[in-house]
């Protein structure tokens, strides 16, 4: 009993009075992001959600969760484009296609009208994956992927460009890193649910700000932009296309190259979590597109058969071989250059 009282008191003292959780008032502005809202609800950001600068964001996320300023700057710079004169209000982040994107884990798509309020139905589908005391990288990635597939099926205007797909990876990696560890994820399920459902940092449940910076500085063995580039390179501009029609085109190759050259620094942050999510996406895409790889192999074989039929067939044979070779070489090059270089 004494231990429980002591623990409760120490947890309460860990959060100063200025950072105690308070529900937003009717006039306070809030964003579509549970983590941002929680930081505001604890007073690390202005509780009214108004006139927030990049410096405000950096200080708030450093104080609240010890997030590396470089990672905050990556997202914060985008956030500032939604406001005016170097600041923004939290509800400015409702603007679609800047940071807010289709396929949120807890919000509806803009197509359905309200893209910023907590949606119990959508969150319930996401949370149904979280059946264990902790959430692994693979579980978090599957929850993300299944939500995006459901959103794509429900929303006739569903769109998730490459840059927003990267942000969706970062969002998942962030809660894994904040409420788990930087090596293998394993975020505490109770804490993650508290964040999404109450927009509250789970100090009362035992959460403490990490002593280690959640950094964007470490360079992982496998580079995250390359993982997404390979996924786009093979499966088109969406990782959710199925079947055998996703042959590489100049448009897809250019998109992959632009992504590869973007060098967004924080994509190397939360390294294991983001890499794990990216690898999961690639493996899942492979499982759902085996026919594509089968077709590639079949094209090599058919090219040989057509060639042997004589000169009249050799144009077809050349095209079949070229298509298959382009696919195979592009994949091998991207894997070597991006993932293992």
UniProtKB/TrEMBL annotation:
Heme haloperoxidase family profile domain segment(s): 17-229
Q: Which UniProt keywords apply?
A: Heme, Iron, Membrane, Metal-binding, Oxidoreductase, Peroxidase, Signal, Transmembrane, Transmembrane helix
Kindly list the cofactors needed: heme b
The record ties this protein, via InterPro entries, to: Chloroperoxidase (IPR000028), Chloroperoxidase-like_sf (IPR036851)
Transmembrane regions: 224-244, 265-284, 315-333
Check the UniProt entry and state the signal peptide residues, or none: 1-17
Which GO molecular function annotation, any one, does this entry have? peroxidase activity
Please give the Pfam families that the UniProt record associates with this protein. Peroxidase_2 (PF01328)
Similarity section: Belongs to the chloroperoxidase family.
Q: Name the PANTHER family on file.
A: HEME HALOPEROXIDASE FAMILY PROFILE DOMAIN-CONTAINING PROTEIN-RELATED (PTHR33577:SF19), STERIGMATOCYSTIN BIOSYNTHESIS PEROXIDASE STCC-RELATED (PTHR33577)
Q: What is this protein called?
A: Heme haloperoxidase family profile domain-containing protein
């Amino acid at each position: 009993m004494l231990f429980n009282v002591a623990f409760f008191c120490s947890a309460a003292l860990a959060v100063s009075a200025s950072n105690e959780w308070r529900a937003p008032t009717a006039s306070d502005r809030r964003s579509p992001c549970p983590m941002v809202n929680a930081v505001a609800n604890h007073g690390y950001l202005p509780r009214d959600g108004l006139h927030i600068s990049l410096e405000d964001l950096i200080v708030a996320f450093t104080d609240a969760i010890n997030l590396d300023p470089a990672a905050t700057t990556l997202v914060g710079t985008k956030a500032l484009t939604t406001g005016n004169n170097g600041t923004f209000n939290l509800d400015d982040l409702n603007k679609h296609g800047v940071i807010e994107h289709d396929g949120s884990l807890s919000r509806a798509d803009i197509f359905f009208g309200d893209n910023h309020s907590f949606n119990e139905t959508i969150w319930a589908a996401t949370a149904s994956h979280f059946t264990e005391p902790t959430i692994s990288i693979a579980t978090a990635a599957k929850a993300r992927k299944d939500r995006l597939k459901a959103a794509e099926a429900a929303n006739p205007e569903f769109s998730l460009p490459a840059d927003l797909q990267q942000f969706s990876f970062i969002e998942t990696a962030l809660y894994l890193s904040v409420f788990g560890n930087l090596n293998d994820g394993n975020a505490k399920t109770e804490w993650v649910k508290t964040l999404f459902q109450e927009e509250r940092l789970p100090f009362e449940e035992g959460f403490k700000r990490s002593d280690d910076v959640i950094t964007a500085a470490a360079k992982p063995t496998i580079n995250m932009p390359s993982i997404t580039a390979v996924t786009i390179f093979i499966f088109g501009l969406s990782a959710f296309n199925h079947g055998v029609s996703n042959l590489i085109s100049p448009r897809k190759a250019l998109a992959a190259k632009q992504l590869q050259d973007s060098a967004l620094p924080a994509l190397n942050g939360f390294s294991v979590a983001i890499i794990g999510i990216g690898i999961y996406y690639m493996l899942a895409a492979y499982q759902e597109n085996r026919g594509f790889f089968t077709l590639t192999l079949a094209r090599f074989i058919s090219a040989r058969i057509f060639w042997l039929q004589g000169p009249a067939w050799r144009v077809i044979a050349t095209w079949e071989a070229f298509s298959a070779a382009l696919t195979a070489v592009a994949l091998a090059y991207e894997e070597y250059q991006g993932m293992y270089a």
